[in-house]
Amino acid sequence: MTYDKHYYGGAWQAPSGTDSTAVISSATEQEVARVPRGTADDVDRAVGAARRGFETWSRVPAEERAPWLEKLSEAMKSRVPAIAEAIAHEVGTALGLATKVQAEFPIMMLGLNAKFLREAKLEEQLGHSLVIKEPIGVVGCVTPWNYPLHQVVCKIAPALAAGCTIVLKPADMAPLSAFMLAEAANDIGLPKGVLNIVSGSGRVVGEAIVAHPGVDMVSFTGSLPAGRRIASVAGDGIKKVTLELGGKSAFVVLDDAPFEKAIPAGVNNCMQNSGQTCSAWTRMLVPKSRHDEAVELAKAQLAKLTLGDPFDKNTRLGPLASAGQRDSVLGYIEHGKQEGATLVTGGGRPANLPTGFYVEPTIFANVDNRMRIAQEEIFGPVLAIIPYESEADAVSMANDSEYGLAGGVWAATPERALGVARQLRTGQVDINGGRFNALAPFGGYKKSGIGREIGPLALEEFFQLKSIQR
Ligand code: NAP
Ligand code: MG
User: Fold this and answer.
1) Ligand 1 atom with the shortest distance to the CA of 449
2) Ligand 1 binding pocket includes 332 (Cβ within 6 Å)
3) Please, what is the Cα angle at 146 between 423 and 48, to 5 degrees?
4) Which of 142, 274, 322, 454 to mutate to test the pocket of ligand 1 (most atoms within 8 A of CB)?
5) In terms of domains, do 304 and 228 share one?
6) Residue pLDDT, tens place only, 262-276
7) DSSP secondary structure letters along 24-52
8) Annotation marks residue 270 as catalytic
9) Residue 159 belongs to what H/E stretch?
10) Is residue 144 in contact with ligand 1, taking CB distance under 6 Å?
């Protein structure tokens, strides 16, 4: 699978340079595809196309814009198997999960944004002012590799719905689904310059997008260091920025919770996509009196999550996305051992899987919340079980983090769980097994970011407000 052109201005465009990036399978360590490595020149042309596209797209009435999102979603449906396969290679996500979560779910969300647009209130009378929502302009989108299509859709779907045009740089490590999205846009004849994609590195293409004077807003998902850099470059140009950064989310298991349900749910949440999930509950807070019971249940649940080839039907947990990611996670596991946490299971590379970027799913118990493995985002299959003394102690430890993206609470009653959920400084909390909701805004408190994605409220990020007094 090879792509040798960028996509902008409604057509495939030859790159200005000659470099390309190899896409490496995380299971075989072999090259599976190649994409062009863009330059600042490519970005400049794509931004030009997006600016011209904005002139017309922003004036298309909402009721005519909405069906384009449905058409694009429809055109992506036949690509589900190809997308799932590509992401199983790129990220290591087990094929079954990749099909549902990495392909079908974002494609559904793409279409759902048509409904959000149709239901959006775009004008409002306040006193003698008519307040109208207008699209903010050209949006630069920079996305990571862990849920590559999902994170692209989280940005482009509401932005396009709002009437903005896009310049997207997908993650260098997992760019293939973005190219398939460009193919789908091309197939349906999406108006020129609405969706523009330049692949390449963050340092070159990402920076050029963020710094470009023709870009009005930047929407970024990824790490805290890159987010900090992007916010400062965008700040220099007085551009709006939304940031979806990391997390170190806490799952608070209260003393009266049904542990046989709660603990396995917590383990599954932490381990999804082999822990390469920004919202993962990587800290499990349990009452000290029931710590050992929680550890046994967690260990038993983890034993059910088979590690292996993402293309094998029995696999729940695949390899990590890259050698760099594997080594970084192994480094954290060593920190955990040195910091004095109890290694319950896992702790290294699996002997039976010498090829591929595998790390054994790992549980540490008796973790102190101040340890590095409890404070820093590991982005791998590593769970920290942390004992607490009282409910107040649990809340204060859950909040003792520079992040605040997600979290969970489980108690005997929904009332008690809700009472604790209200005290957590975090953007999302699932109580007593509450499921993910494609209507609910998602985003971070504190250093987990700025702004919200997903659901009807996500459109608001891409509007400007104009007040007309009459
Ligand atoms: P990253 O380095 O933050 O990269 C995310 C995206 O930003 C990529 O497209 C990257 O380009 C680009 N980028 C990097 N520096 C940039 C800059 N100065 N200007 C513009 N764009 C820039 O994240 P990553 O390398 O994918 O993963 C590293 C760590 O980030 C992970 O270990 C994890 O802790 C965290 N992470 C968090 C999330 C989340 O959802 N919150 C998602 C993924 C990763 P390249 O393609 O060249 O890298
Ligand atoms: Mg990077």
Assistant:
1) 41
2) no
3) 105
4) 142
5) no
6) 999 999 999 999 999
7) E-TTT-SEEEEEE---HHHHHHHHHHHHH
8) no
9) helix 148-162
10) yes
Whole-angstrom CA distances from 38 to 143, 315, 334 are: 15, 36, 37
Q: What confidence score (pLDDT) does residue 293 get?
A: 98
Closest ligand to 321 CA?
1
- Of residues 164, 207, 278, 360, which has the active-site annotation? 278
- Res 1: pLDDT: 80
**Overall pTM surpassing 0.90 (yes/no):** yes
The half-sphere exposure of 196 on its side-chain side, counting CA atoms within 13 A, is 30
At 195, the pLDDT band (50, 70, 90 cuts) reads very high
- For range 443-463, the mean pLDDT: 98
Q: Which domain holds residue 261?
A: 250-438
Tell me the two tokens of residue 349. Answer: 């590379």
Between the alpha carbon of residue 169 and those of residues 7, 46, 230, the distances in Å are: 11, 11, 13
pLDDT in tens, 358-386: 999 999 999 999 999 999 999 999 999 99
CATH code of residue 37: 3.40.605.10
**Would you say the CB of residue 449 lies under 6 angstroms from ligand 1?**
no
Domain count for the chain: 2
The rounded distance, in Å, linking the Cα atoms of 388 and 77 is: 47
Atom of ligand 1 nearest to the CA of 448: 41
**90 ligand 1 Cβ < 6 A:** no
- Beta strand spans in 107-154 (E): 123-126, 129-135, 138-142
Q: Is residue 1 in some structural domain?
A: no
The answer to whether position 164 is within a domain reads yes
Least Cα distance to 73 among 100, 37, 103, 53 occurs for: 103
The bound ligand whose nearest atom lies closest to the alpha carbon of 142 is: 1
Residue 443 lies in a domain: no
Give 409-420 as a DSSP string: EE-SSHHHHHHH
